[in-house]
Amino acid sequence: xxxxxxxxxxxxxxxxxxxxxxxxxxxxxxxxxxxxxxxxxxxxxxxxxxxxxxxxxxxxxxxxxxxxxxxxxxxxxxxxxxxxxxxxxxxxxxxxxxxxxxxxxxxxxxxxxxxxxxxxxxxxxxxxxxxxxxxxxxxxxxxxxxxxxxxxxxxxxxxxxxxxxxxxxxxxxxxxxxxxxxxxxxxxxxxxxxxxxxxxxxxxxxxxxxxxxxxxxxxxxxxxxxxxxxxxxxxxxxxxxxxxxxxxxxxxxxxxxxxxxxxxxxxxxxxxxxxxxxxxxxxxxxxxxxxxxxxxxxxxxxxxxxxxxxxxxxxxxxxxxxxxxxxxxxxxxxxxxxxxxxxxxxxxxxxxxxxxxxxxxxxxxxxxxxxxxxxxxxxx
Length: 380
Prior knowledge:
Blueprint: H1 2-8, H2 24-33, E1 49-55, H3 64-69, E2 74-81, E3 85-86, H4 90-99, E4 103-109, H5 116-127, E5 138-140, H6 149-167, E6 172-175, H7 177-183, E7 194-197, E8 215-224, E9 227-237, H8 240-246, H9 270-273, E10 297-300, E11 307-310, E12 315-318, E13 329-332, E14 358-364, E15 367-373
Parallel strand pairs: 1-2, 2-4, 4-5, 5-6, 6-7, 7-8
Antiparallel strand pairs: 1-9, 2-3, 8-9, 10-13, 11-12, 14-15
């Protein structure tokens, strides 16, 4: 108990807080002072992981296309600090992150001393109805407000119950190991997705009430193209298929929605999963180079504006534009020999690689990803 009391002085949560503001010092202090006999065994990811970030107004205006191009695969954006502060950048972050093809969710910094249902209603109102592909909402639990653990747990339950009833999905719980064990102590959410804050490049330590984690916030000092630092970086415990299973509608595919996902295939839902006609040889795990002379490379728009140029391993055609209207564009139909995750790269050789806003749209089994590439960073 002495260790807990000594560490409690480090729990000073500022107003207008973002993720980690209440946990950063407390978790480190508790880890150093703990006298618990329970071993602090780290829980590692079961396999591959994905990289994501969380964002609030403290990162300013975010260029989400640039964020996506830098490899970020999921993001959470702050809606508010309790009832005190609505995040002035929430609307733009929520809309633009999804438009950039990033799998996105909403988090709320929870203040247990305030009305829990009113906080939930504020989030629900501004978040709007969740759409297929959105992540479940997040309750950020890292402030006790001077309440007892029983009181904090009761307030968390009010928020979770209200949001779950309104959305039909289980919210994600964000917290730290020691904060939850000291100030919440509830085992009621062992089956809810856990987002654990533990600033380590290794595997995180979990509250005793969970046996596994879904997200791991591992640093608060990262950087990413398109956003002002420092940035919180996170891992998802799984591959893209697993992440999509967690999203709204991810485990309940609807035939005819234009997305081939979940258990759908070309036999059960031809409308969404019909085999494309490629015209090119199947691409194996070794990869391949697609040339502009290949049958699966189809050009659209006036022919006089296409320019031929040598690329990496073959030729390509390019066209410049000063308009946002799609005029000249190419469709490339890939045929992969097996399911999996593939990296698609496109290079333009100098001096024509000056376009900083080249738009690429990739249609895949689970939807359409739209990514803007700064081609000036590479010389093909």
